[in-house]
Automatic annotation (TrEMBL):
One of its GO terms (molecular function) is hydrolase activity. Residues 52-63 have a biased composition (Pro residues). This is Fumarylacetoacetate hydrolase family protein. Belongs to the FAH family. The lineage of its organism: Bacteria, Bacillati, Actinomycetota, Actinomycetes, Pseudonocardiales. The keyword NADP does not apply. Residues 68-272 form the Fumarylacetoacetase-like C-terminal domain. Keywords: Hydrolase, Metal-binding. It comes from Pseudonocardia nematodicida. Transmembrane segments: none annotated. InterPro entries: FAH, Fumarylacetoacetase-like_C, Fumarylacetoacetase_C_sf.
Length: 276
């Protein structure tokens, strides 16, 4: 609610700062260094229902992480539609944190070559340094839905290296939400249905079990090269069905509506602003 940290208890929103008597900050980003303490405080409350509609002023679950990573080419079918070779290790790029928005923020198109990419998004809950895969989930605060929106013309412009991160980090290009769901609330956090519709038509559909590098391996890989901090964000990659992979290519237009769904995490609605 208006950028304040809230806990979804059943279908009720609890303002954490007020309910805890000021024990926790109202700023969502400030809770991640104290994630185990928050989990303990919240224990015993009714399990959240991710189908609950978020308030219209809901913000991003992790609005300004110290680090925000993107992973490219992480589903085999997306590798195929891109005409590239299957990577032998994660393809990592930076997605600037200033692009992150909440579920209700309208998308203003900067060009006519903006594409969609539904993704499972990981938020780190404990500092991770050289974490082995077998304990990687212990360092995850929760999962949410994201769109790694991309201006393809900008992304692939210029000489090598191309403007990969910049083309995926323009204002509003990182909608996330509506909820952050802890892994223990999911029957199998490694196998979730993931899909995206554009104006009601399904454009992407897969399961996260098809990730080439799953959450465990990504946390282990990244933490083996640099520290992951509480509140850091990882966009884990998109399945096939992007607009630029179609013939003819399809890009977002004013008035379009993207609905991104991941099993157990709810749905993220992204509306493209109409021209003024």
């Amino acid at each position: 609610m208006a950028g304040r940290l809230c806990l979804l208890s059943g279908d009720e929103l609890v303002d954490v700062a007020r309910a805890s008597g000021g024990r926790f900050d109202a700023d969502p980003q400030q809770v991640y260094p104290r994630w185990p303490e928050l989990r303990e405080w919240a224990a015993g409350r009714p399990q959240a229902d991710p189908r609950t509609a978020p308030p219209p002023d809901a913000g991003a679950p992790a609005p300004y992480p110290r680090q925000c990573f993107g992973i490219g080419l992480n589903y085999a079918d997306h590798v195929g539609e891109s005409g590239l070779q299957t990577p032998t290790e994660p393809v990592v790029f930076g997605k600037f944190a200033s692009c992150l928005t909440g579920p209700g923020a309208p998308l203003v198109l900067p060009s006519d070559t903006v594409d969609w990419e539904v993704e499972l998004v990981v938020v780190i809950g404990r500092e991770a340094r050289r974490v082995p895969e077998r304990v990687a989930w212990e360092h995850v605060a929760g999962l949410t839905i994201g769109q790694d929106l991309s201006d393809r013309a900008l992304q692939f412009s210029g000489p090598a290296p191309q403007q990969f991160g910049l083309g995926k980090s323009l204002p509003g290009f990182g909608p996330t939400g509506p909820w952050l769901v802890t892994p223990d609330e999911l029957d199998d956090p490694d196998d979730l249905e993931i899909s995206c519709t554009l104006n009601g038509a399904t454009v992407q559909h897969s399961r996260t079990t098809h990730l080439i590098f799953d959450v465990r391996s990504l946390v282990a890989y990244l933490s083996g090269r640099l520290p992951l901090h509480p509140g850091d964000v990882i966009f884990t990659g998109t399945p096939a069905g992007i607009g630029s992979g179609r013939d003819p290519q399809v890009f977002l237009r004013p008035g379009d509506e993207l609905v991104s769904r991941i099993e157990g995490l709810g749905r993220l609605v992204t509306r493209v602003a109409t021209a003024t």
